[in-house]
Every structure is written in structure tokens, then in C-alpha cells.
Amino acid sequence: MSAPNLSGYFDGKHRHALVLQGGGALGAYQAGVYEELFNTEYQPDWLVGVSIGAINAALIAGNPHDRRIARLTEFWELVSSGMGPVTSFFSKGFGEAAFEPPAWFKHPRSAFNEFSALWSALIGIPGFYKPRFPPPVLQPDGSPGALSLYDMAPLKETLEKLIDFDLINTKRVRLSVGAVKVRNGNSHYFDNFEQEIGAEHIMASCALPPSFSPVTIEGEAYWDGGIVSNTPLQYVLDSKIMEKLCVFQVDLFSAEGPLPVNLATAQQRRKDILYSSRTRYNSNMGAEVVNTKKALRDLLARLPEQLQQDEAVKQLAESMRVTPIEIVHLIYRQSRHELESKDYEFSRASVLEHWQAGRRDAHDTLTHPEWLKASGLTDGVTQYDLTRHTREV
Fold first, then answer.
1. Looking at residue 269, what DSSP letter applies?
2. What is the DSSP letter of 188?
3. Of 94-103, 319-328, 383-392, where does mean pLDDT reach its minimum?
4. CB 223 within 8 A of CB 208
5. Percent of the chain at pLDDT exceeding 90
């Protein structure tokens, strides 16, 4: 699946931002979205991520254009390799078409997913994390081992192997990753336009307690940014961008879903609501603020010339200046066999499904008539959610 060439729709002044939510194993969906965008003109010059979104963003920003898909693939092959020979029964490899399980195992797929999630919890994930030994209860208070169930040392090795942080710090592409300060609970973004970025900044964005201990950077301890907000769109909207902006917002949890029918589905619905961070509400509120500023600026422009020259009016008008923004929502909507464990279920089968779902949704969006008939950007915010709202598998 490749997106059509839409050259001419955007002029050369448009910026493209890729905003990536946290969601563990579901992050393969974001990699699929990026692969579909890869050969289009929608190459992001600004990558913003939280947790697994920070890892995917760094893999893209920290590699030359022609190696980005290979590095994403290498990472997701590595973290989905934990079940060894078992995996080979359920997947053919990256780059293949849709995953098709053996006929004899098609019905108990949910049981397989639960077994895979349990395996990840007990054994760890290759290149990502391993269980603490001795366990936290036997570690001295205040030590990293006493604060977490798993050790993220494997992730540090993986990041340093797959990501060129020197390239990130040349600022050819902007990279912003979200974390939260443990002491005061405030959200904080590490941005390569403001500081040098290293593996520790990506790890801080991924340090979700109690699984992982805080990451200390310059004397300050940080946890996963998803604790405060799992959706980093607000950071983009709050930035003083004065160029036209197209934002691809890739979320891994859907705020909308069916009523639960048992404890398992209640847990699943709770997690979706918690980690979706009220994505649509936040984006709608952000759009309302921007569009209100535009309306006020238009009103000020109708004042008599004498009033427009007043310094207070000029200052207010300048503060109301807005740029055209398009927000394109791509939201992972789970398959029927997925359960509450979907974000820590790293089987090769599920990773491939998520990757292909991302490619499909990105393709559906870029070829949707509503997108193709767009007449260009005007001041203010326009939002699109053009992907299918249910999963059929």
C-alpha cells in the first residue's frame, strides 16, 4: 500500500509534525503509520513522543532517511523475539502481508495473547527490560532496584546501538519527548532544540512505575510522561509555531469503546480511558482556543484605523496571531481478541498485526475523499479522523 502523490496540496512552507502517544507493545502501530508516510511528502520535521512513542520518534529522528524503516523494523523484531520458537508458528516475518494464525489456533487467540503477556511479565522483553534480581523487596530502600520490578539496562544498549544521538543533536529534525518530574509531578519535555538529547532522556520518557525506576538527569528524577498526559499534542499546540502546520496524531488507546461486560473488559475499558488522556477533548479544546484567537484577531482588524494604531490593540492583535493547523487523527482500535494486556503483549504475531493496522489506517486516511478534496489550509484548526472505527479481525 502506498499513498498517492499529493504534491501541490501543501506548499513548501508547511511543517509536518508526528505526535506519538505511549502504549507499550501497541507502538508497532505507530511504526506502521510511519512506514506508510515514508514515501510521501508528509515526512515529519518535528517528532513528539511519550513512552514507546518517544522510542519510535528517536528511532526516526536518529537515523538517516534511508535507514529509518530498517531501524524501526530491527527494534520491533528484537522486542518481539522473546518467545523464540513459539513465535514462528504465528508469524512469517516483517514485511509480509496480514498475519494468519494456524486454523487450529484461531479461536483461542486471546488465550495465546494472555500467555504471551504472562511470558513478558515473567521473563522480560529482549532489548527492553529484564526482571530485577534480587526482587525489589530485597533491595535497599532508595536504590533503583527497590523502586521497580524490572531493569531497563537492555533498553539503554538497544537505544545506543540503533540511534545516532549525534545526528539528533544536529537539529536537522526536531525531537521532543515527554516525561514527568517525580518531585513535583509537573510535565517536562526534553527538546533537542533546547538541549542535547541522549539515551537517558528517551529512557526517562519510558520509566513507567512500578515497572521501571525513575531516571535521574542532572539531579532530577523523571518518570514516564504518560502519568500526567499520555498524549503530547498540547505541547505542539502550545509552541509558538508561526508556519503552517500539519499534525499527524497517532494514538494507541481509543477513548471511545463498548460498555464492559465482565471484570476483564472493565479493566480493558479503564486502561483505554486512562491512557487515551481524553485525546479528542484535548484536541477539541486546543482547536477552540486557536479558533477563538483567530476570531478575535479578525474582529480587531475591523476596528477603525485610529484604534488599530493604539499600542494596546496592536499588542493584543499580535498575541492573537495564529497559524493554520491541521490535526490528522490516527487511532488504534483493537481487534476482538485483544485484552487488557495488549500493551505488554509483545508476541511477534501481535506486533505484526499492529504494524499492518498502522499502514492500513494511514493509507485509508491519505486516500480518503474528504482528505483529497481539501482546498488548502485556512487560519485556525481543522481536524480529521478518517480511519475505520472498528476492527474486523
1. H
2. E
3. 94-103
4. yes
5. 45
